Amino acid sequence: MHSLQEPLLRTDIGDRLFALSEDMLCVAGVDGYLKRVNPAMIEQTGYSEQELLALNFLSFAHPDDHEAIVSAIGRLGDGQRSKLFECRCRYRDGAYRWVGWTGSLAASEGLMYAIGREMTAQRAQQERLAYMASIIECSNEAIISLTPDGICTSWNRMAERLYGYQAQEMIGQPISVLARGSLLAEQEDLLRRAREGECVTGVETRRYRADGLEIHVSLTLSAIRGSDGEICGLSAIGHDITPMKEARLALIASNEALEEAMVAADAANRAKTEFLTNMSHEIRTPMTAIMGFAELLDDQQSPPRTREAAESIRRNGAHLLRIINDLLDLSKIEAGKLELDLQPCAPRQIVQDVTDTLRDRAVAKGLEFTAACGADLPRLVLTDPTRVRQIVTNLVENAIKFTSEGYVRLTLGVAAPKDDMPRLSFEIEDTGIGIPETHRRQLFVPFSQGDMSVTRAYGGMGLGLAVSQRLAYMLGAEISVQSAADKGSVFRLLLPVAYLDISKPERRRSCALASRLARLDGCRVLVADDCPDNRRLMLRLLEMAGAKVVTAEDGAKAVAAVLGDSIVDEPLRAGFDVILMDMQMPVLDGYQATRELRQRGYEGAIIAVTANAMSTDRQRCIDAGCDDYLAKPILSDELTTLVLSHSRAGDLVVGCEGA
Q1: How far out from the chain centre does Cα 17 lie?
Q2: Separation in Å, CA 332 to CA 336, 340, 612, 616
Q3: Sign of CA dihedral 463, 464, 467, 472
Q4: CA-based Rg of the chain, rounded to a whole angstrom?
Q5: Most CB contacts within 10 A, which of 123, 367, 377, 639?
Q6: β-strands 498-499, 381-383 pairing
Q7: Is 169 a residue whose pLDDT tops 70?
Q8: Confidence band (pLDDT; 50, 70, 90) for 572?
C-alpha cells in the first residue's frame, strides 16, 4: 500500500493491485460509509458493489462488535498502519463470519484504508484449542506433554497436585525427575516405546513427588504427530492409583484374614460336630442299658413294686431322652448338620402316633385328650414325617404340661394354600394356664421360660418350642400362638406339603403286633458292642425272642467270629443271619469291621447300631456297607422287628397285619 502522499486511489499500480488482491480491500469515509471495494470483497461477501457502497461499515458488522470497532478506530493514528480489530461481518447470505482488519487513517483526506482477511477457520481452531486446553487444565488426570527425548513442555494443574511440582518448575526439565533407581530404566523404556509409535496404556508403576513421597500411578504414553505425520512430541497421562493399591492390599490382607477365619470356623465346626457325635454316643449308650433293663424288669411276672420301679425308670428315662434329643437337635440345627428326609406319609398316622404316645400322660393328669382329623385330608403327602411328628409331639406335650384341668385337643385339617402350595393345619388347643402377652416373645428362645415361677412349678428346659420352631422353618412351615393368661392357648402349625396321588390301597402294619409275633427262632445273630451292659441287654432280648446269639467286644473279634478265625459253637459255623454292629468300638471300629467283611466277600445282613445322632450318620453307615441302621437307646420292639426283617427266619414268620 502506498503512502498517503501517493494515495492508492489515484495510481494505476494501486488500481491493479486493488483489483488483483485476494484479501478484501476497501476505502471508507470518516462517516463510516464505504467509498470503494475490490472484487475480492464483492466475491467473498456475496454483495454487489452497489450494495456494499450503500452500507455503513457498522451496519456491516455484528451489533455486539460495534463498541470495539469504534474504540479501535478512535485509537488509529494518522498515517500509521495498524491492526485494528477482529469482528463478525454479515455476508449477503445472512451468516456472520470473523474478519481481521488492518488499516490506515488519512485524516487530511477524511478516508480510512482497510485490508480484511476472513478468520473464521482460524477462530474455530483457536476455540478448539482453547477448549482442549481448558479440558486438559481441568482434567482429573495429570497430563504432561514432552519432547521426544522426555523434556516437559506442558504441565497441567492435576500434574501439579499429583506430583507436587509447579508448572514453572517442570517445564524445560526432564521427566526423569519423577523416577529413581530402577524406575529410571523403566521410564526410559516407556519413552522409547512411545517414540517408536506404540501407545503404551495402563502401566502401573511408582513415582516420587516433590516432597519425596512415593505414589502409585497408572501411566499412558503416546506419540504426538505434526501435520507432516512425523512424531514431534509425546504425551504422558498419569492417574493416581495409590488409594486403589492400598485398598487392594487391604482387601488381600482381609481375604487372607477371612480365609484364616473360615479355616478356624471350619475347624470349630468340625470340632463341634465331633463333640456332638461323642456326646450323643456317651449319653445314648448308657441310656440303652437303663431303658432296656427297665423294660426287662417291667414284666408281668415281676413283683408289683419291681414293676412300679421299672415303670418309673422308663418314664423318667424317656423324659431325659427327650431333653437329650432336643439338645442334640438344637445343636445340629445350629451347626447346619440336620437334614430333612422327605418321604410319602399319611397325615392321619402322624396324629395317631402322637395320640398313642401321649394319651397315657394326659389321662394320668385327669385331662380329656381328644384328636380329630378333617374329612378332606389327603391320604398321602410328601414331607418329613419324623420331624413333623416331633413338632406336633412337642406342642401337644407342652399343652399337657401346662394344663392342670380341662382338656387338650389336637385337630388336623386342610388350610388355605399359600403360593399355590397345599397346607395342613395342626391345631393344639388347651385349657391351661395360658401365656401373657409380655412372655410370648420368649416362647421360642432356647433355655428360656416366660416366668421362672412357672418353670419351678411345671419343670422343663425351654427347648421343645425352640427346636419345634427351627424344624418348622426348615420345613417351610409356620407356628403361631393365640393365648391369654388363665385362658388357655391355641398353637397352630401350618405345614406346606405336596399331595401324592397313589392308587394302591393303603396297607398299614401294626408295629406293636409285629413285635409281639416277631419270633426269632433259629435266627443266628452276632452282637458286636464294646459296652458289656449293652451286650448283655441285646443278648437277653434276642434270646427271649428265640435267637441264638454270639457276642464280640470289638470289631476285630467280630470279623474273626464271622470268618471262622475264632472258636465259635459248631451250630453257628454255617454263618450268621444278622450282625448287629456297634460303630464305635476299640481296636477296630464298626465302619472298618464292616468294610473288611464286605471286602472279604461277606454278604449277610449287617445292621449298624450307633448312638450317633448326626444327620449324615445313617448314610455313612450305608456307605460303609451296612444294610440298615438302629439308633440307641434300643427298645425290644424295634430290635426284634428289625432283626426279623433282615433274617432268613423272617421269611417263615406270619401273622403280621398287612405283611
Answers
A1: 85
A2: 6, 12, 12, 11
A3: negative
A4: 51
A5: 639
A6: antiparallel
A7: yes
A8: very low
